[in-house]
C-alpha cells in the first residue's frame, strides 16, 4: 500500500475498505486464537529421561519471540502478497479490461451520457485488489495457526 501510494499518488484501498481489513484481521485473528484448544502437553517438558515429573516451561525475557520457522512464514507470506498485489495493481488494467487506462489520472467515478455517476475501471480494479488481499489474509490466518514443521496441516 505504501509503494502504490508513493508511485501512483493514491492508495488502492478506500477508507471503508481499510476498516473492513482491520475488522477481519483483528476480530477473526482473535477468534482463531481464543478457540485454539488448550493442550497441556505442549507447555510441559521432562527434565531427564529418568524423571517423569513434568515441568512447566516458562518464557524468559532473553528468549526469542519470533523463531526461525515464524520468520520463514512471515517472509514467504510477505513476498507472496507483495508480488501478487503488485502485479494486480500495476498490470491489472491490461489483464481484466479490454481498453487499458491510466492508473494515475483515471477518476474513480465517471458519468455516462445520461449524467448518472458510476464506477470507473479504476474503481473496479481497486475492488479486485481489495478482495484479493482479503482472501490472501484469510488463508494466511488459517495457515499460520501451525508454526512447527512437524505439524503438517496446510490449507491447500
Concise summary:
The chain has helices at residues 2-8, 15-34, 68-95, 121-143, and strands spanning 44-46, 54-56, 109-111, 117-119.
Number of distinct helices: 4
- How much β-strand is present in the residues? 5-15%
Count the beta strands.
4
**Largest sheet, spatial ordering of strands:** 1-2
> Spans of 5+ residues with little confidence (pLDDT < 50)?
43-50
Mean pLDDT: 79
Q: Secondary-structure element sequence?
A: HHEEHEEH
Shape: elongated
Number of discrete domains: 1
Walk me through what this model shows.
- Strand 3 and strand 4 form a beta hairpin.
- This protein has four helices and four strands, in the order ααββαββα.
- It has one domain (2-143).
- Helices cover 50% and strands 8% of the residues.
- The strands form two sheets. A two-stranded antiparallel sheet has the order 1-2. The protein has a two-stranded antiparallel ribbon with strand order 3-4.
- Helix 2 (15-34) packs parallel to helix 4 (121-143) and helix 3 packs antiparallel against helix 4.
- By secondary structure, it is mostly helical.
Key phrases:
single chain, mainly alpha, two-stranded antiparallel ribbon
Q: Would you spell out the secondary-structure blueprint of this structure?
A:
Layout: H1 2-8, H2 15-34, E1 44-46, E2 54-56, H3 68-95, E3 109-111, E4 117-119, H4 121-143
Antiparallel strand pairs: 1-2, 3-4
Amino acid at each position: 500500500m505504501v509503494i502504490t501510494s508513493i508511485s501512483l499518488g493514491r492508495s488502492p484501498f478506500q477508507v471503508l475498505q481499510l476498516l473492513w481489513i482491520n475488522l477481519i484481521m483483528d476480530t477473526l485473528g482473535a477468534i482463531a486464537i481464543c478457540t485454539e484448544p488448550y493442550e497441556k502437553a505442549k507447555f510441559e517438558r521432562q527434565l531427564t529421561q529418568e524423571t517423569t515429573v513434568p515441568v512447566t516451561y516458562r518464557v524468559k525475557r532473553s528468549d526469542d519471540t519470533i523463531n526461525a520457522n515464524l520468520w520463514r512464514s512471515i517472509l514467504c507470506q510477505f513476498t507472496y502478497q507483495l508480488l501478487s498485489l503488485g502485479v494486480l495493481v500495476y498490470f491489472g488494467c491490461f489483464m481484466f479490461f479490454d481498453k487499458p487506462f491510466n492508473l494515475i489520472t483515471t477518476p474513480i467515478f465517471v458519468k455516462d451520457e445520461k449524467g448518472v455517476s458510476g464506477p470507473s475501471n479504476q474503481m473496479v480494479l481497486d475492488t479486485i485488489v481489495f478482495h484479493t488481499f482479503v482472501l490472501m489474509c484469510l488463508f494466511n490466518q488459517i495457515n499460520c495457526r501451525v508454526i512447527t514443521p512437524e505439524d503438517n496441516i496446510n490449507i491447500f
